[in-house]
Write a structure and sequence with these properties.
Number of domains: 1
Number of strands: 0
Order of helices and strands: HHHH
Number of helices: 4
Structural class: mainly alpha
Oligomer: single chain
Largest sheet: none
Protein name: Formate dehydrogenase subunit delta
Helix content: over 70%
Shape: globular
Organism: Dongia soli
Strand content: under 5%
Pfam families: FdsD
């Protein structure tokens, strides 16, 4: 796993941590919306490639669920 991928995993999990107080049904779409709005398309592409290649290793379950809901 590259340093860049590790950084993206950490960042995505931090976003997920922010939404921990929300019910999961609300948190997952909020995480996805945040990443869609504020991450550069190259960042989104890299994290989605990590999910495809490594099944999202290192991502928290609700973060992984949110990322899987993003369009490719």
């Amino acid at each position: 796993m590259s340093n860049n991928t590790e950084t993206l995993i950490r960042m995505a999990n931090q976003i997920g941590d922010f939404f921990n107080a929300y019910p999961e049904a609300e948190a997952v779409p909020q995480i996805a919306t945040h990443i869609r709005k504020f991450w550069d398309p190259r960042m989104r592409k890299a994290i989605l490639a990590h999910i495809a290649d490594h099944q999202g290793e290192g991502l928290k379950p609700h973060v992984l669920q949110a990322l899987k809901s993003l369009p490719n």
